[in-house]
UniProtKB/TrEMBL annotation:
It comes from the Bacteria. Belongs to the ATP-dependent AMP-binding enzyme family. The keyword ATP-binding applies. NCBIfam families: ac_ac_CoA_syn, PRK03584.1. One of its GO terms (biological process) is lipid metabolic process. Keywords: ATP-binding, Ligase, Nucleotide-binding. Signal peptide: none annotated. It holds the Pfam family ACAS_N. Its EC number is 6.2.1.16. This is Acetoacetate--CoA ligase.
Length: 669
């Protein structure tokens, strides 16, 4: 079939609508609050008009466990600075672990290194209790920072939950990050404890990270404890004499979950720290709260992902992406999650579908880029695998095209709740996404999530319908960050979200809402690069590239092209006496892979004479990206405000190269 954007592809059955978690909540509102809503649109409108009533209803519906009563729901509707549920004392980990039933699986783990394993709920809870109590004996206290470079394994889940169970603050980078990138993040938050691994295997190739680990130990002067997991080589020696093996810590004094005491903390106590991409300097240390994420988790996992104790959630991720946190959040309804540590295309491109069939996954997570690879490889999952348990697909990481939707209904399953969502690290959740009670239209995100007052605004701050504007959240949400760690005067926080529309959150996406409430994301409106769902800051790339021998200056952009393709060219100014030859390109590529990650490597290199700058010394990344996508130069860049106006002409002439890339066999982003 050939479909167009907006074509109706799927309608939920009456049985699904009536038994959904969302319908149960609407029934509860009718019984306990005398609130009767005809449909999702009416429920959403109430949730954003009466934000205090909505979030208090969630508190009561999900029976949030607090050791002290709250004095109000929201002190004042202000952004930033909203104070939610003052007086309450909660614990995130307690709520993630309370619903799983003994004897039932909690985590299925598959890896390129280990044999398949399954962790039951009672084992997960006992391991969290054992590790949490061991951390207390190390002297880790509420508010202390605990960091990790563990891969996507059960140990990482246990470490996150144990850290938050005692009120310490969790933060993680995946082991494929270079030492410099990790230090730029962890040095900001001054951790006391590090969980680390000796290496990892990806696509059959082993990567020893003990050298990088030594740099971390050297570069983190506040570090007092190192817990070491020799995953790649079980016989690997301790990296430092004081390092303790994971196995030693876990066997020293086992503790039953029933004997463990969670540390209840203030609603606004820091839970974990995620990182922005570092576009305008060091990555921002985005700090979320125990209470905010506890409420947001229950809302999005129950109502918008429709997870139940019988559900099985699988989204391929690394521990450095917020989707790892989302997978942990997926435990809150007592179901199962699947973790995979390895190359999603190895030993063949069907690896994730094999896992989905093996574990009878009910919600499968994928990026549109992954689907493009499936399409290119001719993969047809429905013809090879038993996907009878599969109920829904969650698309995330980038805007999804109508062709992506079409592929799922043609090659995976016709009766499929296919959802696309957008939000991200900033709130560790979504602003727009799914509802099991709504139809699915090609290329369209189903709806704005409950409690999210999202609109497309024009330059004057007026809401738009059926026109593209800036994605703006007009009322506070509990899952908005508390602050950026170390940003004592909150200047970077305000500049990041509130400098364009004062008192309203500007997210940095181009956004459209149509008349039925369907949503479209058209990419970033700032200069952040989005590679396969991972946001990468240009400043982070420049810090690596411009230290490479022979490089004087550089500029990089990522282009979202039709058909779900991406093109990330890098433009390099060579120092006098050097040239952008194959040897220099190899040096740049090697530096980006080792100090950043494979996603930092551009698709192609181009030699230029000069990078265009503003008079204040900023690279014109956004104007260059818009020009390469077809915008008129005079519409996106003022030559009078440029330090070197002639430098822009190269990019005006470069547009033909983009067209050739699109028409050719360009590698997908």
């Amino acid at each position: 079939m050939t479909i167009q954007e907006g074509d109706l592809l799927w309608t939920p059955s009456p049985a699904l609508v009536q038994t959904s978690q969302l319908a149960r909540f609407m029934d509860w509102l009718r019984e306990h609050r005398s609130l009767d809503f005809a449909d999702y649109a009416a429920l959403w409108q109430w949730s954003v008009d009466f934000v205090e009533d909505f979030w208090e209803a969630l508190w009561q519906y999900f029976e949030i466990d607090s050791s002290a009563p709250y004095t109000s729901v929201l002190n004042e509707r202000v952004m930033p600075g909203a104070v939610w549920f003052p007086g309450a004392r909660v614990n995130f980990a307690k709520h993630m672990l309370r619903k799983g039933q003994r004897g039932r699986p909690a985590i299925h783990h598959r890896s390129e290194i280990r044999l398949p394993t399954t962790l039951n709920w009672e084992d997960l809870r006992d391991q969290v209790a054992t590790l949490a109590e061991a951390m207390r004996r190390m002297g880790i206290r509420p508010g202390d920072r605990v960091v990790s470079t563990l891969p996507n394994t059960p140990e990482a889940v246990v470490a996150l939950l144990a850290t938050t169970a005692i009120g310490a603050v969790w933060s993680a980078c995946s082991p494929d990050f270079g030492a410099r990138s990790i230090l730029e993040r962890f040095q900001q938050i001054e951790p006391r404890l590090l969980f680390a691994v000796d290496g990892y295997r990806f696509g059959g190739k082993d990567y020893d990270r003990r050298g990088e680990l030594a740099q971390l130990v050297e570069g983190l002067p506040t570090l007092e404890h190192l817990v070491f997991l020799p995953d790649l080589d079980p016989a690997a020696p301790r990296p430092t004499p004081r390092a303790r093996l994971w196995s030693e810590v876990m066997s020293e004094r086992a503790l039953r979950h029933e004997d463990f005491h969670y540390e209840d903390v203030e609603f606004s106590h820091p839970l974990w720290i995620l990182y922005s991409s570092g576009t305008t300097g060091l990555p921002k240390a985005i700090t979320h709260s125990h209470g905010g994420m506890t409420l947001e988790t229950h809302k999005v996992i129950a109502f918008h992902a429709n997870q139940t104790p019988d559900s099985c959630l699988f989204f391929y991720t690394t521990t450095g992406w917020m989707m790892f946190n989302f997978m942990v959040m997926g435990l809150c309804q007592g179901g199962r999650i699947v973790l995979y540590d390895g190359n999603p295309l190895a030993p063949d491109v069907e690896r994730l579908w094999q896992l989905a069939a093996e574990h009878r996954v009910t919600m499968f997570g994928a990026s549109p880029t992954f689907v493009q690879m499936m399409m290119k490889a001719g993969v047809r999952p429905a013809q090879k695998y038993d996907l009878s348990a599969l109920q829904s697909v969650l698309l995330g990481g980038a805007p999804a095209s109508p062709e992506t939707f079409e592929w799922f209904y043609r090659e995976v399953k016709q009766d499929l709740w296919l959802t696309s969502q957008s939000g991200g690290t900033d709130v560790c959740s979504a602003f727009v996404g799914a509802s099991p009670t709504l139809p699915v239209y090609a290329g369209e995100i189903q709806t704005r999530l409950l409690g999210v007052d999202a609109h497309a605004l024009d330059d004057d701050g007026q809401p738009l319908i059926d026109s593209v504007g800036e994605l703006v959240i007009r009322k506070p949400m509990p899952s908005m960050p508390l602050y950026f760690w170390g940003d004592t005067d909150h200047r970077r926080y305000r500049e990041s979200y509130f400098d364009v529309y004062p008192g309203q959150w500007r997210h940095g996406d181009f956004f459209k809402v149509n008349r039925r409430g369907g949503c479209y994301i058209y990419g970033r409106s700032d200069s952040t690069l989005n590679r396969a769902g991972v946001r990468i800051g240009t400043a982070e790339i420049y810090r690596i590239v411009e230290n490479v021998e022979g490089v004087q200056d550089s500029l990089v952009v990522n282009l979202d092209l039709p058909g779900g393709k991406f093109f990330m060219p890098m433009f390099v100014v060579a120092k006098p006496g050097h040239a952008l030859d194959a040897a220099m390109q190899a040096r740049i590529t090697r530096a980006l892979r080792t100090q950043g990650s494979p996603r930092h490597v551009p698709d192609r290199f181009y030699a230029i004479d000069a990078v265009p700058y503003t008079l204040t010394g900023k690279k014109l990344e956004v104007p260059v990206r818009k020009i390469l996508l077809g915008a008129a130069p005079e519409k996106v860049a003022s030559r009078d405000a440029m330090m070197n106006p002639a430098a822009l002409q190269y990019f005006v002439d470069f547009k033909g190269e983009v067209a050739r890339w699109l028409e050719g066999d360009g590698r997908l982003g």
